[in-house]
From TrEMBL, chains A, B:
Gene3D superfamilies: 3.40.50.1860. Pfam families: Asp_Glu_race. Its EC number is 5.1.1.3. HAMAP family: Glu_racemase. This is Glutamate racemase. The active site is at C74, C185. Belongs to the aspartate/glutamate racemases family. Substrate binds at D11, S12, Y43, G44, N75, T76, T186, H187. Provides the (R)-glutamate required for cell wall biosynthesis. It catalyses: L-glutamate = D-glutamate. The gene is racE.
Length: 272, 272
């Protein structure tokens, strides 16, 4: 066993960077590999079978890089592919839906919980199923926000266009009050200030990705996989199937860790 | 797989009840079996090899009861026996030292952390080792408090005798300031008000047992072992190798769940 092996993070695009940002903070000794399937993003509207296939391709790429743990830092992929990948791989595999659900159950006082996510995630009803199992009298309002991911991927998440789209998309919550809202897509924390503004400061926003890193940390200890030797120059590497220029711009700004230089890779037979 | 199987909790005596109290709250659907080796308590001053043997005997008793997970709700036993038991059993096994360490790292601002525990736990230096690996510049002050467990087991934990002994035992902390103190023995939360009073309200007390239940909950989900079917009449059963009268008195008062009726059992060749 070599605990210096990296932890792998996969996402449909740049969304999983919100999880990596938290990992960089909470897990200062860990080497990190990130793969965003930007060329085939968004995953949200795709059929489940295709999302499973794409998620497998990302997983296999990182397996060859000898990762010690896999984090599916994408809600859509977690919803449809986590169980299969977890039972197949011989390393721990973590998704983002359970940690987000647990945090929401802890946060809510009225038991009125909102979930926003991609069409794929909302259609899978994964959050709803997990939460209701644990808190049978919870009332869950689920809403697909298919326009959010493209705004983030095109680096428009701080613009007035973003504000307009978020306000329009979240309108159903003016009728259906919730005290807790799960950001059920790892892209959404980049829109957090706008979402908070639309929902009001009294609504607690749950960042599933950030919650996930707590679980990753615990599982590293449980499986005795934590890299406890402090490393000055840990490896943090980024791969994208899409444009490295756009990826690097968003990653450099969001992660606040200096300039990001991602590498372009090709997955699958065709990349689009 | 049958998720209605109980979770097993073991301790040298009544201390693990502080963990069970938290489990009853956080895990409302789970069936719970508790075994306290009261007849051979305290474990703290015993040689490691003997603690390992006693812990095995408790583990084997609960294994026959078909538990789905084992919680070593005893710091002394966790320190010396966790790794061995974890690698031998084919069910998840959780100790109390890692969760307590993680919580202390999160809580401290000055990185001056105190640890109190039995002689066995302090001698093992388990907390110190775990914390320094994760926070290399932390300063750990460890102190064995061998008089605390007997006070709790004899149901004197709310008396003036307890106040006197706690004040005397914790005197070293008047010289060595800490901002966080780990209650590194599951018996100690019963002395919490007195300990808090002696340490001052500004010192954060970390209840390792309570922290552990968060980890249990997460692992139940990770291994898909949670009992998600709400049970009206879940089983909560208590076994002790010592006096059921004393055990029931402490358990009934501490757990606040109605009258506890423990069963007496015998472990090992001789019970004393």
């Amino acid at each position: 066993m070599c605990n210096e092996q990296p932890i792998g993070f996969i996402d449909s695009g740049v969304g999983g960077l919100t999880v990596v940002k938290e990992a960089l903070k909470q897990l200062p000794n860990e080497n990190i590999l990130y793969l965003g399937d930007t060329a085939r993003c968004p995953y949200g509207p795709r059929p489940a079978q295709q999302v499973i296939q794409f998620t497998w391709e990302m997983t296999q790429f990182l397996q060859k890089k000898n990762i010690k743990m896999l984090v599916i830092a994408c809600n859509t992929a977690t919803a449809v592919a986590l169980e299969k990948i977890k039972t197949t791989l011989d390393i721990p595999v973590v998704g983002v839906i359970l940690p987000g659900s647990r945090a929401a159950i802890k946060a809510t006082k009225t038991k009125q919980i909102g979930v926003i996510g991609t069409e794929g995630t909302i259609k899978s009803a994964s959050y709803k199923r997990v939460i209701v199992q644990k808190m049978p009298n919870a009332k869950i309002t689920s809403l697909a926000c298919p326009k959010f991911v493209p705004i983030v991927e095109s680096n428009q998440f701080q613009t007035s266009v973003a504000k307009k789209i978020v306000a329009e998309s979240l309108r159903p919550f003016t009728k259906q009050k919730v005290d807790t809202l799960i950001l059920g897509c790892t892209h959404y924390p980049l829109l957090r200030p706008i979402i908070q503004n639309v929902m009001g400061t009294e609504v607690k926003l749950i960042d599933s990705g950030a919650e996930t890193v707590g679980e990753v940390s615990m599982l590293l200890d449980y499986f005795q996989l934590a890299n406890d030797r402090p490393t000055k120059d840990r490896e943090v590497a980024f791969y994208t199937t899409g444009s490295t220029t756009m990826f690097d711009r968003i990653a450099s700004e969001w992660l606040d860790e200096g300039s990001v230089n991602s590498k372009h890779i090709v997955l699958g037979e065709k990349n689009l």
